[in-house]
Design goal:
Helix content is 26%, strand content 30%. The chain is an alpha/beta fold. It has 4 domains: 4-207, P-loop containing nucleotide triphosphate hydrolases (Rossmann fold); 215-303, Translation factors (Elongation Factor Tu (Ef-tu), domain 3); 310-421, Elongation Factor Tu (Ef-tu), domain 3; 436-588, 3-Layer(aba) Sandwich (Rossmann fold), CATH 3.40.50. The strands form 6 sheets. Strands 7-15-11-12-14-9-8 form a 7-stranded antiparallel sheet. A 6-stranded mixed sheet has the order 2-3-1-4-5-6, sandwiched between helices. Helix 10 (461-477) crosses helix 14 and helix 12 packs across helix 13 (535-544). It is elongated and about 90 Å long.
Amino acid sequence: MREQMNIVVCGHVDHGKSTIVGRLLADTGSLPEGKLEAVQALCARTSKPFEYAFLLDALKDERAQGITIDAARVFFKTGQRDYLIIDAPGHVEFLKNMITGAAHAEAAFLVVDAKEGLQENSRRHGYLLSFLGIRQVAVVINKMDLVGCDREHFDRIATEFRRFLESVGLTPECFIPVIGRDGDNVAGRSARMPWYDGRTVLEVLDGFESGKTATDQPFRMPVQDVYKFTSRGDDRRIVAGTIATGRVAVGDDVVFYPSGKTSRVKTIEGFNTPARTSAGAGEATGFTLEQQLYVARGELATLAAEPAPSVSTRLRVSLFWLGKSPLVRKKDYVLKINASRVPMRVEEIHRVMDASDLSVQPNRDRIDRHEVAECTLRLSRAVAFDTTDRIAVTGRFVIVDDHDIRGGGIVRESLPDQQAWVRDKVLLRNYKWEPSGVPMERRAERYSQRATLILLTGDRSEERRRLAKDLEARLFEDGKLVYFMGMANVLYGVDADIERSGETRGEHLRRLAEVANIVLDAGMILVVTAHELTQADLEIIRTAVDPDRIETLWVGDTVTTDLTCDLLISPEESAAESLDRIKRLLQDDGVIFRCW
């Protein structure tokens, strides 16, 4: 199989990126038959001068405005290997598209207009290439005919740009003087610049080295879904996703993070594909497990024999903000990393940098559009990831605000959080867990319910207990497997060996969660009362119990802690009204069916 490499071509708007790529395709005979003639004919009919950029800018509004909006992708072959060339947009308004394109590249060409010289986006794109971890970069100084093919002019731009790129951690491989429109130094030598004895664009392209391939890295597959089949005796549960790095094979021991659940691969599955025993990076695939597990979307599948990913609720990151409204602290956003979507907030902004001139402003409370920042993010629940110095693809993320992607970045460091001590115990528990022979979904089908922990908390203990027992009785009368457990059941039973104090509160909650986890594994609905839980208390419980299987209800006039609850129960309501509202919540969340 021939080697393939992804190359991004970027730079300031109108500096000739698309022209260079178009000329490269034309001069090497890589265009589809008739493509060049068709575009030339179209230009003649519309009375527009022909430009090689039109070979790539296929969108109508791009041709009309003369700019690249989306990141055009073209396949290209040389005697050396196959290429996917990504022509990234240069306009500042389309930086998100440029980042998207560059994130998939192994090497880059930065294009600079010889007459205009370095512009804001020349520097910004250079910084972003470094930001994304692309280390193989060549600079193409285009339109040399506009400066009389002057060597001194070329050297001045090269010296200035080299100094900037090296300041952001990039050492350019070379600087190439070209005339993209005429093909000088693109695929062939230029007679107009005899003073240049370096490589052409094509020669530099073939000289880029393919680094460690994705398949050579540790196995990582973000779980996108779990498919369950029931027809014709097919009882497979297929864990599905696209493999980001590494390989997986039948018989491999897999571990899912952040849960730490483990099993062994039974079969490799694919849609309408021949039977196979392994799959590798880049493949959309699935596998079944010898021991059935409840695996949720967003888990990161890994191999037990390979280095584990990081797991935390606190990340130190470098991010680039593209939203029109600034990124601010104490506002809720959504972080998308791998297949996880997690509510998040900015905990701290360490410093903000203007990517075009590298000016730094410390102690800021906001990040404005097109600014780069180093921040600490706090997530509502733990996620699995890799820092980008280990595995780049599983260390990248985007930030969503108001249903649109507003920024993105890379994880620099995994920071400790308050749940780390609990998580370590849970990971060990899940690794050693002896699964039941009856899978959880079988119990759910038999009992017509989804195993769930219902936490009733608040500031009025008598009303909590009464409502909890009324709820238990109501569910029991409707045929549900349900059990009420007060905190005292745990404190004076499982926790009898530890004192009751503020210092031991976390351990009490951890043990409560472990008891709840066993009851939920048996397929039951567990109703628990606890006094004035805080968000930190809930996070301890959610670390040991699947967060998707927890419903949190506050009984009282107002929430007196920082807890985010699913339902507020007013003491002014009647018991019947409260139970009806809880019923609707459980129905809406799929815990019970609407027939009860």
